[in-house]
């Protein structure tokens, strides 16, 4: 899909507009300082590896993949995931779903409750404009069902919405808390002309603590509750629609939900839908730690590779032990932990090297990162490049309207854009 880049985009060079497909011909290289920093960077080979690895993992486990698109909100990345074999895409809002449909998705799971008349209007219009499109959203209460029915009556809607019943966890976010509540809701959904009950959904990430014993125990408890509801709904033949879905799977402990997605003994076939999203770029912090646990549980030597970083420059070394980098809260994730210094290079250097272990980011302002270091060791100099790793890719993607795609040697060969 055509993508034109120009100086309206943060850190894009002061040139005439450029089609992203022509970037390789420009000869730009990050190691030659051809672009302004800070710059969000995607490593092309790591992206390709992650997309292929996760698709193969899902197929090997007998489930389908509906990557959570809210992570990147990038049509170019959606297209790559779908081309690799993704069954569909997941999103959090109707707006996001529209972006996914425009990128080519024909199956969408909105992993959230829809409660607004304007969103019902938008979803109905989207479905009417796209024959063959399937969209499911989550329902977790009779009150929400009442809003849907009220909208359908006011609009005299002829077509029901496809929905999934959400099971939740006490003390955490949305979802039915008990099997009794869920079964009562399932009966009401099955009886309502405004919706079609197409399956069950849950999200396990809220119980994960990056401790395999704890995570396996807590996720198993959740799966036991959800499976109980799946079987009870099946026993009462409350399912509707052409395709039955059972869905789970964030980006931290997605291996642990596989037993739910392969539940046996139901009265009709179903599709197990895995919804991990952050896998496409992975990270250097939070998810890297969780994936080490997964690798141990699965007996893997390796899995995903970190594909996203933010390149910065040292702009000041005002006192011993402190350097300020050209990167701040406007540019990089900080909701889970501070950015992680990975590599650095002098202005004239044609390669980067690993940062000393004592280098760390202690704080961020809007436009500055506080890099702390031992003044008796390696001292960063004004103009040096410093490459920062991230923890939690979602909150770096939403700070950039574009990202450069680069080769392992720093050559800029492409770009993606985001639509948050």
Element-by-element helix/strand order? EEEHEHEHEHEHEHEHEHEHEEEEEEEHEE
Count of runs of 4 or more consecutive helical residues: 10
Tally of strands: 20
Average pLDDT, all residues: 97
Strand content: 15-25%
Task: Identify the overall geometry.
Answer: globular
Question: Helicity, in percent?
Answer: 25-40%
Global Rg: 23 Å
Structural class, from secondary structure content? alpha/beta
The CATH topology of the largest domain turns out to be TIM Barrel
Query: In the CATH hierarchy, what is the superfamily of the largest domain?
Result: Alanine racemase
Quick one: CATH class of the largest domain? Alpha Beta
The major β-sheet equals:
10 strands, mixed
User: What CATH architecture of the largest domain would you give?
Assistant: Alpha-Beta Barrel
Instruction: Supply the number of structural domains.
Output: 2
For the termini, the CA-CA separation is 18 Å
């Amino acid at each position: 899909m055509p993508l034109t880049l120009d100086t309206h985009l943060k850190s894009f060079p002061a040139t005439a507009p450029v089609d992203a497909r022509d970037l390789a011909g420009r000869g730009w290289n990050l190691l030659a300082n051809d672009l302004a920093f800070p710059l969000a960077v995607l490593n092309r080979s790591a992206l390709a590896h992650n997309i292929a690895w996760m698709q193969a993992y899902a197929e090997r486990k007998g489930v389908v993949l509906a990557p959570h698109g809210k992570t990147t909100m990038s049509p170019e990345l959606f297209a790559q995931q779908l081309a690799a074999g993704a069954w569909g895409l997941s999103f959090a809002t109707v707006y996001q779903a529209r972006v996914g449909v425009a990128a080519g998705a024909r199956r969408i799971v909105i992993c959230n409750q829809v409660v607004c008349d304007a969103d019902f209007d938008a979803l109905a219009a989207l479905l009417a404009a796209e024959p063959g499109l399937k969209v499911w959203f989550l329902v977790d209460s009779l009150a929400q069902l009442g809003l849907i029915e009220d909208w359908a009556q006011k609009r005299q809607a002829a077509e029901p919405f496809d929905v999934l019943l959400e099971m939740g966890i006490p003390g955490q976010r949305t979802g039915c808390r008990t099997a009794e509540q869920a079964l009562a809701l399932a009966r009401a959904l099955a009886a309502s002309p405004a919706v079609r009950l197409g399956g069950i959904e849950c999200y396990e990430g809220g119980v994960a603590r990056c401790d395999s014993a704890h995570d396996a125990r807590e996720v198993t408890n959740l799966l036991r509750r959800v499976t109980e509801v799946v079987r009870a709904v099946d026993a009462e033949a409350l399912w509707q629609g052409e395709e039955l879905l059972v869905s789970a799977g964030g980006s931290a402990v997605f291996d642990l939900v596989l037993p739910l997605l392969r539940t046996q003994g139901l009265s009709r076939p179903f599709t197990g839908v895995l919804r991990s999203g952050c896998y496409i770029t992975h990270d250097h912090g939070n998810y890297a730690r969780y994936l080490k646990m997964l690798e141990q549980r699965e007996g893997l030597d390796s899995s995903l590779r970190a594909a996203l970083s933010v390149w910065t420059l040292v702009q000041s070394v005002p006192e011993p032990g402190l350097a300020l980098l050209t990167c701040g809260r406007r540019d990089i994730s900080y909701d889970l932990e501070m950015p992680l210094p990975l590599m650095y290079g002098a202005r004239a250097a044609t390669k980067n090297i690993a940062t000393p272990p004592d280098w760390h980011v202690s704080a961020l302002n809007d436009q500055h990162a506080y890099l702390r270091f031992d003044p008796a060791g390696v001292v960063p100099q004004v103009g040096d490049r410093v490459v920062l790793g991230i923890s939690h890719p979602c909150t770096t993607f939403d700070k950039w309207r574009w990202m450069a795609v680069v080769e392992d040697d720093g050559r800029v060969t492409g770009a993606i854009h985001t639509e948050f």
